[in-house]
Amino acid sequence: MMVKPIRTLLGFAAAMVAVMPVAAQISDGEIYTVTQSRDVPRVSLGGTVIPYKEVTMSAQIPGRVKYIGGIEGDRFKEGELLVALDDSELLANRNSALAQLGSAEAQLRNAGVQFNRELWSPKSKSAMGGMGMPNLFDQMFSRPMEDFTGTRDRGVERGADIYSSQVQIAQARNAMAQAQAQIQAIDAKLRDAKSVAPFYGVIMKKFVEVGDTMQPGMPLLKFSDIEFLQIAVDVPARLRPGLTEGAYLQAELDVGGQIVPVRVAQIFPMADAQRHTVRVKFDLPQGVSSPGMYAKVLVPDFTASAREHPIIPTSAIRYNGSLPGVYVVDEEGEPELRLIREGERMPNGFTSVLSGLRAGERILENPPRNVASGWSGGARDENSR
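^ thats the sequence. predicted structure below, dont judge the formating
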């Protein structure tokens, strides 16, 4: 059988690879020449991740909480009910106002009928009563004599009666308008008794439970739109000229140390009088963080002089515990592990080096696992001084 010879050959090949010089295992494609970069110094400023939109709903009327739509973290669409207060008293007042409106409508109809009666059959010309000759004598002699002698003016009396009927119509209309206004006011309070979602969002915090008695102004819950998030940072006034709305910067998230791009969304027009800082909000990419998290934004400092430092691929950095290092290839092609001091990580896969390297040196871009050597003190350059 040939199994044993094959295994022997495989073991011999592995042994040959193990004893081969490391330089022979390194191809030219894995070597990267360190380059120099010149950029504006940036200052790392801490901020807090906040929702793009957030509202605190408060009670507008006194009452008892009878309904809460959910708990912290529950999502709601725009227009869905979040909190409702007891509205039994308001409904009773509305029924009373509806009854007053019905009475006012009846008074208006009655005033209209009385006006038409006075217009076509005036009271001032109606007979006092009686039949036959007394009534006829009164119509033909008594009333004309009263008008002739000035003891009574039937025209003035008829005008007064018509005016009185018109006043009754106006009063009935005013009573209707007053009842309708009361109904509108009660309807507004009924709307205030219910808090609905103003947009698609999440309950962030509850301040009440079912059964709590509320007074106007007391908070009910905090509702936020967490689909879009921002970082709120208090930027020193001296760094304000380096920021423009719409510009893109870099931010480092507290969880995982992830580097993400952020956009300047809003710059507040006025600085804080006590701290002399300007409030700036940065838009975050979706799904990278949560509200309340800590984040750092790298803000350019144009008041400081520009710095030059080497940049290398991030894949070239290897860690021994917490100490970063790179494999520098010497003139003989042998790799040497050298201690460096990391700078800023860039979104394009590169990292700046504050000390330990200088431009022109060659390093392994992606060192294999079998590369090993002792630590080196590092090259002396201007960055290491």
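The CA atoms of residues 73 and 166 lie 63 Å apart.
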